[in-house]
Amino acid sequence: MNRLCLLFSFMALSTCNSKPPIDVQGHRGCRGLYPENSLPAFQNAIDLGVPTLELDLVISKDKKVVLSHDPFMSHEIALDTNGNDILEADEKSHNLYNMTYDSIKRYDCGSKPHPLFPKQQKIKVHKPLLEEVIDLAEEQTQQTIHYNIEIKSLPEWDEVFTPKVEEFVALVLKIINSKGIANRLTLQSFDVRALEEIKRVAPEIAISLLVDEHESIDNKLKLLSYKPEIISPYYKLIDAEKIKKLHAKNIKVIPWTLNDPKDIKTMIDYHVDGIISDYPDVVMQLLDVRQF
Question: What are phi and psi of 113, to 5 degrees?
């Protein structure tokens, strides 16, 4: 092979392995396609070539770190241990913090049709452990994938639905450190207390400050004692000018949760640093890139 051919081959390989210009994050794996926060959802996201997996964490009674958006069995996605619907009025009585992980695994969190995601595959799944997801992703991607991990804590949940924030953070960091992925992840939360604790005990980890749709980005930033690496707001809170101002402060902007192609294209035009989506396949198609 001559030098010119070698050069083109190297350039093609570099392009295939380069990270997308915008970090595509599969929300709860890829919630639009597979049951949220499930092993099949993360496997599908990896198969799509998504560079970053976004996921949520809670804690069980026996101190296991479990993937779940809510600290209880949500009526929207879960069936009880007998396969029956869970009423919205009763869902908080299925408190994960009061259950051992063996009990949590008995709930089916993938067979119930989701009204917001008609294309979602229906599979009987249980809520996995954080370490199971990491093991899957590390093996499938040869230890190159990134993670955006949300700590689901609130002051009013302390010792009711979750442990105190110091213990919550410690349990999560123990697994992160044991798996050796601290340099490939972001820890995010709406709870400023959790972000303060992370920075106190693990200052090397990148932080993303989540901003809810009813909050102000500027006001939320003032609550934090340091400048986060990332701001992750509800996407309707930002525009091109706001993003420029945050970039000028050396803060990346990764909005959530974008599913409509029109909104996704708008955010791409705004030069956001990442996009969190239930349909990462759509974002990947619009960017025309692939990571793995």
Answer: -60, 140
User: Is residue 89 one of the residues assigned to a domain?
Assistant: no
d(CA 284, CA 25) in angstroms, rounded, equals 10
Domain holding 239: CATH number? 3.20.20.190
How many angstroms separate the CA atoms of 111 and 187, rounded?
Answer: 30
- Quick one: tokens of 3? 């030098």
Give the structural domain span for 245.
21-60+130-287
17, pLDDT greater than 90: no
Q: Is residue 138 part of a domain?
A: yes
Question: CA-to-CA distance for 96 and 99, rounded, in angstroms?
Answer: 5
What is the rounded CA–CA span in Å between residue 40 and residue 119?
14
User: What integer pLDDT is reported at residue 10 of this predicted model?
Assistant: 33
List the structure tokens of 98: 């009061």
Give the angle 128-131-137 at the CA atoms, nearest 5°: 90
Task: Spell out the alpha helix ranges (H) of the chain.
Answer: 3-17, 39-48, 101-104, 130-141, 165-179, 192-201, 217-223, 240-248, 261-269, 280-287
Count of domains observed in the chain: 1
Secondary structure element (H or E) that encloses residue 65, with its range: strand 65-67
Q: What is the pLDDT of residues 265-291, one digit of tens each?
A: 999 999 999 999 999 999 999 998 544
Q: What is the pTM (predicted TM-score) of this model?
A: 0.91
Give the span between the Cα atoms of 19 and 52, in whole angstroms: 10
Q: Are 197 and 169 within 8 A, CB to CB?
A: yes
